[in-house]
Amino acid sequence: MQLEESALGSEIRTQVTQNNFRGCRFRVAKEPVYTDLAMNCLFCKIIEGTIPSTPVYQDELVYAFADINPKAPVHVLVVPREHLGSLDDASADKRELLGHLLWAAAEIAQQKKLGKGYRVVVNTGEDGGQSVDHLHAHLLGGRALNWPPG
Ligand code: 5GP
Ligand code: ZN
User: Fold this and answer.
1) What mean pLDDT value characterizes the chain?
2) Which of 22, 33, 78, 111 could form a disulfide with 64 if both were Cys (CB 3.0 to 4.6 A apart)?
């Protein structure tokens, strides 16, 4: 299911039950988890709905939206609702969340009919080219992708 952008912020605050596009029922957290870092985080604001985005998928753990500067015909960012700075900040208790992030990327790839192939990328840290300090996976597809990346 695709949600209206304007609905996202209020949903996070009011706790509703929604269907995702595969028909699974899920609950949206009553209040976003705010830390000092998260309060100034671009992706936390996108998840909250105070900064607009084009939603692609959401469930109780992740929110996925179109990248503002797409590098491929399909370029979706899959973001955990919980603020984690990067993959490097993910402790052992986040293993399930990390698995869910990858699962969601594959679900979206199916929805986008990327049967020919796609790439899921998690840029991490300065050398990894990470520019937004909230863990996210890029789902790229719709064209042949070069390897290795630059
Ligand atoms: P990174 O470089 O951290 O791996 O990826 C960050 C991504 O976030 C980039 O691909 C960039 O285009 C995207 N991005 C940055 N600001 C915004 C924004 O305000 N909205 C959306 N939808 N994407 C953004
Ligand atoms: Zn954040």
Assistant:
1) 85
2) 78
